Amino acid sequence: MKTGYLVLEAKRALRNPRFMFFTMVFPVVIFLIDVASFKGHLPGTTQSYASYLMASMAAFGAFMAAMNTGARTAVERSAGWQRQLRLTPLTPRGYLLAKGGVGMIVALPPIVLVALVGLLAEGVHLSAAGWAQVVLGIWVATLPFAVLGLLVGQLATAETMQVFTSGLMIVLGFLGGILIPTTVFPDWMNSVAKVLPSYWLADVGHGAVLGNQDLGRAALVLGIWTVVLAVGVMRRYERDSART
Amino acid sequence: MNETTTSDGGWRATVEPSRAAVSAGAAASLTGLRKSYGEVCAVDGVDLVIAPGEVVALLGPNGAGKSTTVDMLLGLTKPDAGEARIFGKSPAHAVSDGMVGAMLQEGSLLEDATVAETVGMIASLHRRPMAVAEALRRAGIEDLAPRRCTRLSGGQKQRVRFAVALVCDPDLLVLDEPTSAMDVATRREFWHSMKEFTEAGKTVLFATHYLDEAEEFADRVVLMRTGRVIADGSVAEVRAAVSGRTLRAVVPGAVETDLLALPGVNTAELRGERIELSCADSDAALRALLAGYPRAHDIEIKAVGLEEAFLALTGDAREAQR
User: Fold this and answer.
1) What pLDDT shows up at residue A243?
2) How far is CA A96 from the centre of its chain?
3) What pLDDT score does B21 carry?
4) What is the pLDDT of residue A244?
5) B42 touches A at CB < 8 Å
6) Residue B320 belongs to what H/E stretch?
7) Is A17 near chain B, with CB under 8 Å?
């Protein structure tokens, strides 16, 4: 692994103030709006709506940050920079690790920020293990989305990238139960949701709050998605030479 | 005119008799290279051997297949048929060993990185890169190191891309239209920095459509058209061919054999009353033409274009062999 390359890529991603601001502030704002509209406790539990929504928005923030970071590679690909990268010893695997790593780095701050707002401003109470699962669990569960974003970046152009990512984020966000709870879904939609990586990302966060977790299955489904998408990214990197 | 565009292997052999011998230790060799995109045949059987230390210009109009050929040499595009080797290795192997550096045609730079970071990023990926500062110095852009790539002029960007190509300390440098975004002065400076590289005995292949650039900086010129190599020769041969002019006029009562007999005329074509003479010495030809045909009118003399020059070159070479 070329760490020097990873460091430079991370620096580039973190340097964009508008992107970083939007990535970190947007989930916090939605969190605060949601909390203001849903007061009290989740039916049948001792947990507040705020804690549930905190998990949702931490997951959503991480998911958005990871997807957008990956998808932005479409811009440098369209500009021809990826052809230049292909003239270096960087392997498809090295590319995946470096770019995926950057997506993961960018995904962490929104999780931490939403959790901090939950703890300090909204009085969310969780056990130490619960907090660890909300922050680290959600972060690790973001991995397939960092890779999915990269795949979008490898397939889309600089112009179509935004449409692809927004579409995917809406579909995955709603159907996966990040933006609305899957308990309101009819049965068939619930079955569909369980195949989506976003369902399990949300489940890791909500499980930490509600205590009903299936981390083994979450790891399995998220792992399969990560591997399949990663193979897609590496293949595409290796073959894509199109002059655009 | 079309029958003269086919390549002439026999002629090439007389120009560079050592080419076959050199192919064993060639810096680059392309054998039977072909590539089609759908119905369009971009490269249609290119054979080319470049010896170590040669500076070769790949000339041709847009759409001649230069960029596709360069892409296949670098391993960016897989050929449909044929093979590309760099110092006897596959392109992927040569790239991974840092033996080849390239400046691609439309490659832009990262918008959110400085010049030093951009060159540093590429250097960090290579196994034995030269120091970033050295690459910047050779490209003549030390002073631009802390600047963001977005805030550079077209010529400066090209120099940064030159540093990116140089930083792996390659033995073969491939440049696709390196000076297309440069003004005349910047182009001159660019080729000046190139000299340092070529004087170290390194090999360069550059694609261009500027004939003067090829003449001035290349040892050898390869002309491509519609996916084929149609001429391949030394710069001296090119220069000789380019000194010609084409004379067109309307000449009532012209006779082809008489036109051919005029001084300074190489070939003559007659369509009705319209004549087209390709001339080694158009001044002499014109004087004689007006003396012989006082009614000649609509006279037009043009310097031979790049393509015509090469066609003339291949044509003459054939005549000489007969």
Assistant:
1) 57
2) 16
3) 46
4) 46
5) no
6) helix B306-321
7) no
Please judge whether A88 and B168 are an interchain contact, meaning their C-beta atoms are less than 8 angstroms apart. Answer: yes
A12 with B105: Cβ contact below 8 A:
no
C-alpha to C-alpha distance for B226 and A14, rounded to whole angstroms: 47
Amino acid identity for residue B140 in this structure: G
pLDDT of residue B132: 93
Which residue in the block uniquely carries the two structure tokens 């933006």?
A179
**Structure ipTM:** 0.84
Q: In this complex, is the C-beta atom of B84 within 8 Å of any C-beta atom belonging to chain A?
A: no
First to last CA, chain B: 19
3-class secondary structure, A208: helix
The size of chain A, in residues, is 244
The answer to whether A123 contacts chain B (CB < 8 Å) is no
Contacts of A55 (CB under 8 A, 6+ apart): A134, A138, A202, A205, A206, A208, A209
Q: Exposed e or buried b for every residue in A66-98, given b needs 16+ CB within 10 A?
A: bbbbbbbbbbbbbbbbbbbbbbbebebebbbbb
- For B25-91, the DSSP string reads G-SEEEEEEEEEETTEEEEEEEEEEE-TT-EEEEE--TTSSHHHHHHHHHTSS--SEEEEEETTB-H
| Residue B143: count of CB within 10 angstroms of its CB | 9
| A8-12, A28-32, B313-317: range with lowest mean pLDDT | B313-317
Asked if A66 and A109 count as a contact pair (C-beta separation under 8 A), the reply is no
- Diameter of chain B by CA atoms? 73
User: pTM of the prediction?
Assistant: 0.80
Question: Which secondary structure element, helix H or strand E, spans residue A50, and what is its range?
Answer: helix A49-71
Q: What is the mean pLDDT of residues A30-39?
A: 86
Asked if B122 lies within 8 A of A89 by C-beta distance, the reply is: no
* Residue recorded with tokens 């080319």: B48
Q: How far apart are CA B113 and CA B268, in angstroms?
A: 59
CA dihedral B316→B317→B320→B322, nearest 10 degrees, is -110
Q: How many residues does chain B have?
A: 322
CA A118 to CA A176: how far, in whole Å?
A: 22
Distances (CA, A) of A200 to A143, A205, A217: 12, 9, 8
Structure-token pair, residue A7: 């460091």
Q: Does A12 touch chain B (CB under 8 A)?
A: yes
Q: Report the distance separating Cα A97 and Cα A147, nearest Å.
A: 9
Tell me the three state secondary structure of residue A11.
helix
Measure CA B200 to chain center. 21
How many CB pairs below 8 A link A and B?
75
